[in-house]
């Protein structure tokens, strides 16, 4: 067996990448698919197109292999995916009941405000590690059940299945035999208890979600099923499920506590490995599951089921059976689970897409660097790309995009440069919040994702952070991380030491801005953000 096939189902495209034992991408195929914007603030994907594009890229990669018959060289398939995006489908026909509601979709923002006013935020944060927000799957799923005629009745009869994109792909790859997700994806639904590592009864009740809809939770690394032989001529083991950002963290080999990476894709996502225990955030970041290996260390006090499943894990805090006695929650950290702190910025590379598609000032994302370089600075112009509200650390669903500071001398080059700066400034803000929460001062930031190719953006990032930014040789870290998790499960790689030794630097960007200039820049940026906040409430 020569390869692991990683499926990277992203927000804008489906990809399939074959990795060899040295962690090199050998074959890649990619296909974009349409973004659907039915109303302002709504973002949908056709789940059927997600599956068909994913299948098409797998076939294209297989067609490039020397032996096309039965693909004996592929040891296992790994799945990594856009997270939170919510699919509801019919268990019998396998057909989605509606378009998938994408993570960027804000249709349930007002409902989330109402839940916050009713006082649910603290309980949700304690149990899930998340900020109560429309970003996560729970309110999206509730919306589908409440707005598709007959859906709730059918859900209660057990006829429907819910899944994030990993579950949807597994269902299709196994011809409906396996309905599963992993803790990294589950921890983004706002229905998963970070401490008991299971769906949470109190949350299912709050969001009115029948448990029969929910997938089985399996470890991130481990064979969970096989592809239907009719698809690729033979059954191939599916050996990893991992949310895209956790996949990138693993692919960047941030395997020790305190290591962090930032991915510049559609959004920007910074994750820091915090080890085997969840670190609660005081700075509006998310506590999330990194990954889970199958070799569970049974928590003290019994099996996972016996140790008060559904409890928050904080003695006396949630009132589940045994909780008030102060005996709940794993007394010994589960060494099979790695937790992360995460900060999500909604508009990363998507800001550049807007320059291309919304403004038409570039024809492809790669042109932005040259255009921005035609001016020396932004001339005090700031773009706050709050097109779909703002994520960490602001969390304002009512903020809207703002371009401020323009004069008669402002050109498209200033706007392009301000767009790049906006990406780097948002990331600088979340890194500050992460350092406060983790009480760890980062010494460097590992970077990846489509926009990390942009050298000007990476230099801006090092300048605004005041620490070096390090880009690895392989920037397909999301897919690579998934491949590593699958490869470890099937013996393709022996251990994490072997994969850590494969990580290699492409380029290191050293900060070149004075501390005074850096602080002045951040101050001006924060003033611009204030102008963007709360816009839709007026
Ligand atoms: P995703 O996985 O979220 O689909 P990718 O990692 O493929 O995203 O990155 C694509 C994003 O990166 C797009 O939003 C695109 O606008 C942006 N991008 C691609 N190349 C560049 C570049 N040279 N400079 C800035 N942004 C870029």
Any ligands, ions or cofactors bound here, and which?
adenosine-5'-diphosphate
- Number of E strands: 23
Shape designation:
globular
- What do the pLDDT scores average to? 91
Q: If you consult CATH, what is the topology of the domain at 343-533?
A: Nucleotidyltransferase, domain 5
CATH class of the domain at 343-533: Alpha Beta
CATH superfamily heading of the domain at 343-533? ATPase, nucleotide binding domain
Order the strands across the largest sheet as they lie in space: 17-18-16-15-21-22-23
Main sheet specs: 7 strands, mixed
Fraction of residues in helix = 25-40%
Instruction: Indicate the proportion of strand residues.
Output: 15-25%
What is the CATH architecture assignment of the domain at 343-533? 2-Layer Sandwich
Alpha-carbon distance between the two ends = 61 Å
Structural class: alpha+beta
Low-pLDDT residue spans: 297-327
């Amino acid at each position: 067996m020569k390869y692991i096939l990683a499926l990277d189902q992203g927000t804008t495209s489906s990809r399939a990448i074959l990795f060899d034992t040295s962690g090199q991408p050998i074959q890649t195929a990619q296909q974009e698919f349409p973004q659907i914007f039915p109303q302002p603030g709504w973002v949908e994907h056709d789940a059927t197109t997600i599956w068909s594009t994913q299948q098409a890229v797998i076939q294209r990669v297989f067609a490039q292999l020397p032996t096309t018959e039965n693909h004996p060289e592929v040891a296992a398939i790994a799945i990594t995916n856009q997270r939170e995006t919510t699919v509801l489908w019919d268990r019998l026909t396998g057909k989605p009941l509606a378009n998938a509601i994408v993570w960027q979709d804000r249709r349930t923002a007002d409902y989330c405000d109402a839940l916050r006013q009713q006082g649910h935020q603290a309980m949700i944060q304690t149990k899930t590690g998340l900020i109560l927000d429309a970003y996560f799957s729970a309110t999206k799923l509730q919306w589908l059940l409440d707005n598709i005629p007959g859906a709730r009745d059918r859900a209660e009869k057990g006829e429907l299945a819910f899944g994030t994109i990993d579950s949807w792909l597994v269902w299709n790859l196994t011809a409906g035999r396996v309905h599963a997700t992993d803790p990294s994806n589950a921890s983004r639904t706002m229905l998963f208890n970070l401490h008991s590592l299971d769906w949470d009864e109190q949350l299912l009740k709050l969001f009115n979600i029948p448990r029969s809809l929910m997938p089985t939770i399996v470890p991130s690394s481990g064979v969970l099923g096989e592809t239907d032989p009719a698809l690729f001529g033979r059954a191939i083991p599916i050996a990893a499920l991992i949310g895209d950002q956790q996949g990138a963290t693993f692919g960047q080999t941030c395997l020790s506590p305190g290591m962090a990476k930032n991915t510049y894709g559609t959004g920007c996502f910074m994750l820091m490995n915090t080890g085997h225990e969840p670190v609660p955030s005081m700075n509006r970041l998310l506590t999330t599951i990194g990954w889970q290996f199958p070799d569970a260390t049974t928590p003290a006090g019994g099996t996972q089921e016996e140790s008060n499943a559904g409890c928050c894990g904080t003695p006396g805090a949630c009132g589940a059976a045994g909780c008030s006695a102060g005996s709940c929650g794993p007394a010994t950290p589960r060494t099979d689970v790695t937790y992360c702190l995460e900060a999500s910025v909604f508009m990363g590379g998507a800001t550049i897409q807007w320059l291309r598609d919304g403004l038409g000032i570039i024809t492809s994302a790669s042109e932005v660097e040259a255009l921005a370089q035609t001016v020396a600075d932004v001339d005090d112009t700031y773009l706050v790309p709050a097109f779909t509200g703002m994520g960490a650390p602001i969390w304002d669903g009512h903020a809207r995009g703002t371009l401020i500071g323009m004069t008669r001398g402002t050109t498209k080059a200033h706007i392009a440069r301000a767009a790049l700066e906006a990406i780097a400034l948002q990331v600088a803000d979340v890194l500050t919040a992460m350092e406060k929460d983790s009480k760890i001062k980062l010494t460097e930031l590992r970077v990846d994702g489509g926009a990390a190719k942009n050298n000007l953006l990476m230099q801006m990032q090092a300048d605004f952070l005041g620490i070096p930014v390090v880009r690895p040789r392989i920037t397909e870290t999301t897919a690579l991380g998934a491949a590593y998790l699958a490869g470890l499960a099937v013996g393709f790689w022996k251990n994490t030491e072997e994969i850590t030794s494969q990580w290699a630097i492409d380029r290191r960007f050293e900060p070149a801005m004075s501390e005074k200039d850096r602080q002045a820049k951040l101050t001006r940026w924060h003033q611009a953000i204030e102008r963007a906040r709360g816009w839709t409430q007026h």
